Amino acid sequence: MPFCAPFRSKLSTKLLNITISSLCKAKQIPRAESVIIDGIRLGVLPDTVTYNTLIDAYCRFAGIDVAHSVLARMQEAGIPPDVVSYNSLISGAVRKCLLSKSLDLFEEMLARGITPDAWSHNILMHCLFKLGKPDEANRVFKDIVLRGEAHAATYNVMINGLCKNGYVSNALSLFRNLQRHGFVPQVLTYNALINGLCKAKRLKDAKNVLRQFGESGYEPNAITYTTVMKCCFRCRLFEQGLEILSEMRDLGFTFDGFAYCTVIAAMIKTGRMREAEEMIEMMVSSGVRPDLVSYNTLINLYCRQGRLDDALKLLDEIQEEGLECDQYTHTIIVDGLCKAGDFVGAQRHLNYMNSLGFGYNLVAFNCMLDGLGKAGHIDHAVKLFEVMEVKDSFTYTILVHNLCRARRFLCASKVLVSCLKCGYQVLRATQRAVIDGLRSIGFANEARKIKSRIRLARFVP
User: Fold this and answer.
1) Which of 195, 210, 185 is nearest to 161 (CA)?
2) What's the pLDDT tens digit per position in 132-171?
3) 265-310 pLDDT tens trace
4) What's the pLDDT score for residue 5?
5) Is 57 helix (H, G, I), strand (E, B) or coil?
6) How crowded is residue 64: how many other Cβ atoms within 10 Å of its Cβ?
7) What angle do CA 38, 44, 45 make, to 5 degrees?
8) Is the pLDDT of residue 461 over 50?
9) Residue 87 and residue 82: Cα distance in Å, rounded?
10) Are 304 and 277 in contact (CB under 8 A)?
């Protein structure tokens, strides 16, 4: 019957799309392409959904350029790209931090006469926030609100973006204003706002939002509590942090390695080594399988305690567990060796890192520079500084500070001038140490010159 043919074709295309989607999710894009070719040979033609599935897969697992090339194939097939095609490309570019590319794609979409939807504008706002352009993101947000297209995801993007750009007060005001107009926040909204408040060390506001979260009918998750707990530790309110830990236990939350490591790391930083070890024993006994973050925390603890042999044994254990040490793991080891005065071992480990393909590790070199300076090997520290391929503000601050400790103020002033010429800044306390040091050894004129250079550096970009 002739009228059945379109139904069969539609059903076949639907089955084709299901197959393509399954293959793409399994990262088998070449096979998906083969299936499309086979389908065309059999008379089953791909549609917009088929190509959009391909675009999304290429964005996630290959690259934006190859994903963008699918648009040309769509045009050849007489299938115009739609807003979903471009949303996938734009969000893919943002995920890969190709922020300028994502803006170009948005403009290209407009040039093609494709009208952006709410999701397109959400991605655009997210991109602008990532580029550090909160004012432009706010303009987009206002346009969405005026058109009546804003929904929960839009508000979440706005609140999260404001927090990450340092506009926590604005985020909190928006949150309160939205509530007054009947907006019901989601778990993501609460978590984004609480995280922003915690990073701004506004613990009281964060706790108020957390309390409100609990009263809203939603249940704060482990991430919410861990965020607030971490803020307590950062604000040196350790007892309050441990109270939240206890509350999490009472509520029956299953602790993951991240929660345990948050507590352990805070205890290590404050020198509460015995309590940190007790927490490690609790983590092991509760059956939490250590991940790399957990191992890095343990290695840090052992290095702080001077138990370098135990720390090095953990490197072997990490490999036995099928994990791979990262730069941070090796940096902790280098720092531990430096603190123990084993600079030969630290250099050997830096060479070992290089052989593993990690390349230049500025943080590790800064640790070694600081270790040499504090151990009184200031000449070795200067030689290391001179051969360092890359330097940053911390590098200069470390060397200038240690030169001042060694009362080599003239040398410190030269390094400080070099730092300012390169556009870096050292800590104000270190700047004062150089100026006061020069005056103390009778170089008042040189001290005045340094002071003038520092003032000039503040105004010259």
Assistant:
1) 195
2) 889 999 999 998 888 888 888 899 899 989 998 889 999 9
3) 777 777 777 887 787 788 778 777 778 888 888 888 888 888 888 8
4) 42
5) helix
6) 20
7) 100
8) no
9) 9
10) no
Looking at the predicted structure, is the pLDDT value of residue 108 above 60? yes
Backbone angles phi, psi at 228, to 5 degrees: -65, -40
Q: Is the dihedral of CA 440, 445, 451, 454 positive or negative?
A: negative
The pLDDT of residue 11 is 53
Q: CA 36, CA 310: separation in Å to the nearest integer?
A: 56
Determine which of 1-5, 39-43, 293-297 has the lowest per-residue pLDDT on average: 1-5
**22-37 average pLDDT score:** 92
Q: Collect all residues with Cβ–Cβ distance below 8 Å to 378 and sequence separation of at least 6.
A: 372, 402, 403, 406, 408
Compute the radius of gyration of the chain from its Cα atoms.
29
CA neighbor of 198 nearest in space, from 158, 156, 229, 169: 229
Q: Is 433:404 a contact under the CB 8 Å cutoff?
A: yes
Q: How far apart are CA 150 and CA 145, in angstroms?
A: 5
Interaxial angle between packed helices 409-421 and 444-459, expressed in degrees from 0 to 180 and rounded to the nearest 10: 20
Alpha helices (H) in 356-443, listed in sequence order: 362-374, 378-387, 393-405, 409-421, 428-440
pLDDT of residue 3: 37
Contact 202, 218 (CB under 8 A): no
Measured between alpha carbons, how far is 426 from 157 in angstroms, rounded to an integer? Answer: 36
Query: In the chain, how many H helices and how many E strands?
Result: 26, 0
- State whether the Cα torsion 302-305-308-309 is positive or negative: negative
Any alpha helices (H) in 112-237, and if so which ranges?
A: 118-130, 134-146, 152-164, 168-180, 187-199, 203-215, 222-234
